[in-house]
Amino acid sequence: xxxxxxxxxxxxxxxxxxxxxxxxxxxxxxxxxxxxxxxxxxxxxxxxxxxxxxxxxxxxxxxxxxxxxxxxxxxxxxxxxxxxxxxxxxxxxxxxxxxxxxxxxxxxxxxxxxxxxxxxxxxxxxxxxxxxxxxxxxxxxxxxxxxxxxxxxxxxxxxxxxxxxxxxxxxxxxxxxxxxxxxxxxxxxxxxxxxxxxxxxxxxxxxxxxxxxxxxxxxxxxxxxxxxxxxxxxxxxxxxxxxxxxxxxxxxxxxxxxxx
Length: 260
Ligand SMILES: CC(C)(COP(=O)(O)OP(=O)(O)OC[C@H]1O[C@@H](n2cnc3c(N)ncnc32)[C@H](O)[C@@H]1OP(=O)(O)O)[C@@H](O)C(=O)NCCC(=O)NCCS
Fold this sequence. Notes:
Layout: E1 11-14, E2 17-20, E3 23-24, H1 25-28, H2 34-43, H3 49-61, H4 70-80, H5 85-94, H6 103-116, H7 121-130, H8 148-160, H9 165-181, H10 189-199, H11 207-229, H12 239-242
Antiparallel strand pairs: 1-2, 2-3
């Protein structure tokens, strides 16, 4: 039989039943936590107890980080323009880029390749620093000594048995940056999740997905708050106090362009 155009190995309907990765959906309801169901749908198999606890911890660690990050600004600004909840949340998700959230994907790739590489940690770090390329998963606007979320996730990784070569590599990179730069560029929460998710055998191409899944509840809360407690259009700048014009001063349109 010819291959069909739309194929999936995720979900199947058999008569009136829905099966997720081969398991009856109704058997999952009430028996699996949300994080366990996420593990199943991403990995295709059920998690063991340690995997379940680690997944829960990773998602909880990124649920929100205040009103200031670009995604929340985007989400609340779009909602403030008179849009509905889904539009605001989608705007927030679109703000996830290489400097915010999206770093998780790059960091997973960096860590997975680093662990397999023949190069030493010192060589890898020096390549990035000499080319002034940011090392994904490292550095933070606020945290300059350590990222407390990283500290907690690494403690849990040790407790649950996921502190292996990927976590070790990530922490060695942090030390090596300090050695070479004389400045601490912390392993941030994206880097920590990237290390642990790599340890759990997830493909780096799922990296952004981890951040999206964990942060969307925070975005929903922010957009809901904006829609229900703030006036529409309140998310505009005070042009005088908060903005600076950097262009040419007012000038006359040349005579040859004037038609009226
Ligand atoms: C998050 C980020 C934008 C913060 O940048 P920042 O506030 O400018 O960081 P700092 O002011 O502390 O930077 C201090 C120095 O460290 C360097 N630095 C910062 N992050 C770095 C990184 N990931 N790799 C290498 N060098 C880095 C800066 O270039 C700067 O160097 P300089 O003193 O020689 O000019 C930045 O660290 C980054 O792009 N990280 C990678 C992406 C990432 O993981 N993002 C997720 C954040 S949760």
